[in-house]
Amino acid sequence: MRFPTRIPAIAALITSGLVALSPLEAQEPLVADLDLFVTLPGAYQLTPDDLEKRFEKGNWNRNPYFEWLTEDRSRAIFQKKDLGNLKVDLTLLQGAFKVEEAVVDFKDGKFLGVTISIFNRGDGGSISMADYDQRFQAVGRHLGTQLQIRPTKREGKPSQGLLTMGYSWISGRGKAVLERNAPEDTSVEYLRMRLAKRDAGGVYEAAMQDRAGATVKLSELPLRVKKSGDGDVFIAGVPMVDQGAKGYCVVASAQRLFEYYGIACDMHQLAEIAGSDPERGTSILATNEELGRIDHLFKTRFTCLAVRQGYQLVELLEGRYVGPEVPKSKYHESIRKHIDQGIPLLWSLEVGQFPEDPPLSEQTSGGHMRMIIGYNEAKKQILFSDSWGSGHELKRMDAEHAYQATHGLFVMKPTTR
Predict the structure, then answer these.
(1) What is the pLDDT of residues 15-57, one digit of tens each?
(2) Domains of the chain, with CATH numbers?
(3) With a threshold of 0.90, does the pTM exceed it?
(4) Which of 86, 169, 191, 229 is most deeply buried (CB count within 10 A of its CB)?
(5) Measuring CA to CA, how many Å separate 186 from each of 156, 161, 192?
């Protein structure tokens, strides 16, 4: 699928007010030292306020180092930047090397854990084995020192859904994992570490598992469904990620779905599996084929509910547009049924074709993937979420417009009851 055409990155930053200086004025790179997130026990005392104090925005109208992915400040993301007059480097272990990205989670106002992308193909291009070995060994030694315990080796078994290999540490001081794609004789696609409190759940607990599959049961998901006084029925607690400037809307949405189910697989892993090109995104047919091929690895079941053929939605049978038409009544019934079961839907559509609430703040058009997370029958609306960070957690569109804009509707749900 095509991904949305948005304002060019530097122009968008100027328009939004992030770039407060002339784009022609050369600036020294800003440096975000991430060591405070991987140094124990100090990291556990960090609060969202501390984050804003440690990484002040200075003369910039918006913070150039990080952004909040959620309005309640429970998740923040640091990303390296190289945008004309704005360059931000992320460093680790007293500046020993630069990393690509860090996601920091808070719970009840205190640090819960951090996920650091030490390297990934989508952002870094490639890495030499010497550089990979140096980073792997340095981070491994650091985690062992911080957690005061020897690691346990993790073997990759792709045929059984264990797609990563590396080491894990669990002690009274916390838990951590350092991993890359398996098997070992393949090129390095990503190198990632997670460090969290000992009792951290969700994706941090899932990352410690030596088995594939969700850590939540299908029968537990209806408990995530909330209802408001004005008729909204929606799924609460879907984690937010930011796909960034890459055409990763499909795998970013899939990562959010997997995190919601308690499956530790991020967009960089999924991009590798699905063969996603960070500049092109993933086509609808490729999405159907690739996710359908890997769903059993994660003990989930993937189903394509509808795809667009000309002026109508049809069922997709054996990868071909030969199924019967999916009328509006069936389309909306399927949305209501899955939302009531606590199962978000993956929704590909033509963005910019119809109005939405809140309205898009940028000039956006083209194919895109979102998550349908609710509905309001009284107002005839669908509720959805974009993988664009804070402010995009819950949005609305007229249900009739949603049907007309749809390119594809997909569901992936855990099989563990």
Answers:
(1) 344 444 334 354 688 999 999 999 999 999 999 999 999 999 9
(2) 9-211 (no CATH), 219-414 (3.90.70.10)
(3) no
(4) 191
(5) 12, 16, 16
